[in-house]
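Lab meeting prep.
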Amino acid sequence: MPVPEVTPLRIGECRGPDFATRRGGALRMARFPAGAALIGLPDGRRVLFDTGYGRAFFDATRALPERAYRWTTPVRLDPHESLPKALGGQPPSLVILSHLHADHVAGLFDLDPTPPVLLSGDALARLGAMSRVQALKAGCPRLLRDRLLALPAQFFHDLPQAAPPPGFAGFGPVRDVTGQGDLLLVPLPGHGDDQHGLFLPRSSHGPLFLIADAAWSVEALRRDTPPPRWTLARLGDAAAYLATFAALRGLMRQRPEITLLPAHCPQALARKDKR
């Protein structure tokens, strides 16, 4: 039986101190890819999970106070890593945004026309009520926020609930994207606002769980080295993040056949070029 074909994509990268991403990390600056995943369904539809960086990020951070985002988190987006290039000129049928941080949504606006978008309506409503500075602190500069608000989006909470797969009972209500059980949205609270991952019970990589920013890398999960609390508090809810992190470690023990793919994992999203 055909299974979804999953292609991890690297849509730009940012730089930041290694010690901010894992307890006991080094003082050096490290590079972190901005990941997305293209899912080719057996019926021919193409679903994109997250979108990485795009021109809209640089537009949204050109002026102060948003310019501070670029200064504190330098971003690089090579032309060959742009989302349209990565997609080969074929737009997806649906884009799922795990959460509304700039490095997960900006690439969306490089696609013309903009495909249908599925996201958290609760997170979008709260973002829309924020001031300019509050939106920046929430990881979504105002111009990006306003473009998200203008979308005719579909919302997670409108999808039908599904029975949690084995090992997923502790993650919260699971929602079925297609109604066929092949793409399951799973709450991963703690980072950002109302973050969700996407579980594929069957795929070209076997059972696959796209976990967005619920962990910085698979190695961090294996070694039980989450980010320090000050990083977690700045980017969301530290206690919720650590609970999600522990649940993912439990899932790895209970179901070792599942491949977990974080959005910024350097090993999973290593450069394919020779530079």
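Slide two material, second protein:
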Amino acid sequence: MMLFSVINMKLRDNYSSLDKLCDDMHINKSSLINKLKDAGFEYSEEHNKFW
């Protein structure tokens, strides 16, 4: 839940896309998506957040 909360906060406050967040923070986008998917969350490009 902490990862979900932090990533959504960063997306909301600092980044217009998941690509920009991952590039800036040197995070593997696929790994992040899979980790949150395993926890039951899915990324929405339209809303720029995980649900």
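Talking points for slide two:
The beta strands are 43-44, 49-50.
The CA atoms of residues 17 and 45 lie 7 Å apart.
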